[in-house]
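Quick one: co-fold with protoporphyrin IX containing FE.
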Amino acid sequence: MSAPAGPGAATIPSEDEIHALVHGFYAKIRADKELGPIFNGAIADWDPHLAKMCAFWSSVMRMSGRYHGNPMAAHLRLKGVDSAHFGRWLSLFGATAHELLRPELAAAFEARAKTIARSLELGMFYRPGLERPPLGETA
Ligand code: HEM
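Sure, here it is.
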């Protein structure tokens, strides 16, 4: 399947590109010394998780409406995740995107991931009155 034509098409991925990125990224995550244990401890069956993540990125990048879920609730349940894990997550995600996709598309994924990571991170860790540096400066 190819990316749709028209303005902005360079930063709209095809479903095949999303599939490649999601599968490549979680292969790295599962093997990662820091993040692997967190994901492998929480996810028993990877196929449905990968399908869900393809639907999520399709909704974010293609506005396909394929994802119906609540990412914040899923992350609030996780134990042992700290801010440095978000820095690691973003660095692996960016590296995978640039390995597999054209530069402008990889950059578009990275930008969206960073915004979403920031909002998840705020939801998980922000407590009024607690000063901390912005995401990316702690990793
Ligand atoms: C330290 C960073 C992160 C960790 C450790 C983490 C871990 C996880 C885990 C273990 C799950 C599965 C939860 C479950 O099935 O009960 C999950 C789900 C999910 N994650 Fe993350 N995640 C991180 C960052 C992110 C970021 C930055 C995004 C988006 C850009 C994201 C998007 C999602 C989505 C959409 C789901 C599916 C939620 C649902 O069940 O509908 N995650 N994450």
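If it helps, The chain has one domain: 13-125.
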